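quick one, two chains, predict together pls
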Amino acid sequence: MIATPRQNLPDSQRIVITGIGLTAPNGNDWKEFRESLLNGRSGVSDYEIRYVGKTLAGICDFDVKRYQSKKDARRGTRAGSVGVYSANEAVKHSGLDWENVDKSRVGIYVGVTEHGNVETENEIYELKGFDYDTQFWSHHHNPRTVANNPAGEVALNMGITGPHYTIGAACAAGNAGLIQGAQMLRLDECDVALAGGVSESIHTFGIFASFKSQGALASHADPTKASRPFDKQRNGIVVAEGGCLYVLERLGDAKRRGATIYGELVGYAINTDATDFVLPNPERQAECVQLALRRAGLAAEQIDIVSTHATGTGLGDIQECSALRSVFGDCTKTYVNNAKSFIGHAMGAAGALELAGNLAAFDDGVCHATINVDELDPECDLPGLVLNEPREIEKPKYVLNNSFGMLGINSVVIIERF
Amino acid sequence: MTPAEIRDEILDILEDIAPDEDLGDLKDEVAFREQLELDSMDFLDIVMELRKRHRVQVPEEDYGQLASMQSTVTYLTPLMKDLQKA
């Protein structure tokens, strides 16, 4: 429990971030991603996928072969490759003496919105060429589609023999992965947690087609303008791929090895709307934020940056703003931003990536913007919204990161500058 | 297909399933596993590709015949002799 103010917790119960590895549509490491966010550089471009045709997506161009053989990449999944890249980058960034780390004490906790759609669709597409005769169905189907695949591929690649699994949490998964990693460290199930989320979602036509049928797939003549949360002309979601995994450690361990600490997880919460398959519930969202604040021992006005979940849908953005207004409405020094406006919605990776995009503010004292707001929707007019241009703020101490998903799953994490 | 054409076809399949390997030095009489990093899933890939590309069925009891290039070509020659090279 982190109901106890963290100053009173022993170092063995305090969880810190000591490494960040990521690939986003506009950056293949933390620094590059941050530069893109500060310079208004979008990662959304034209894209085409079978059956749906021309659309838009946030596409990553990380070097798959940096950490994976061609054979492993072919045999595995895109989510696996994203995970392998992110995990290796995170470990490198952490400065851990990886060769001498006890791999049985490393845990892998990867949030996913979905897994298996891409691989199943590909296999059915192939099978169509054989008149649906299942003797041509690949023996790779099961290992590619088991729900633990993206985490298991990381384990195989890095020789990690501690626990590994994915956390299925719709678009709240990035935060959920992080929270799971922290909990497992507290329980002493591992000494190092690789935790966060991944998305291969741009490779399943089903996600695009389903959002389109729902009237929630973004379109715009200029791809870089398509993802526009809070703007009056927003018309839906831009699907993105990506990944972000953190190295988490107990504070005592991190101190002992002299690690650079990028922030401490001081509060978190996950709750459930229990009201609708798709529509968010601002009351439950606000309760989730309040619970995270309470556990961190913080008042709303102490939060410097709120990283919103907003995806650019008509109602979803309004609902989140309503939730945030009820918590932060009177705060004068709390700034609000959104990373999806740059990269689209990276699904299972979204929460983890969006948090990473804000953690650098602890060093540079800048709150990145939410871009593409030409005409602010009055219903999204939150105080402190950082529109279109980044803003220098007084040395921020707390970032609060929202990540919500279908079936009414809400997640919030709060990170303190260390 | 002639034995030489069958060999080329197997090489083509191997290039797909073992893309990191240099197949130029492959010794036909030595087991694949002694020269290449192939596991049971890779051998299933060879079986699947023969099925997909040529409708050639290799029953499980014959998988051992695919141990080396030489034994594979010997095994497949009667099964593929009437097929045309694509």
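Chain B touches chain A through twelve residues (CB under 8 Å).
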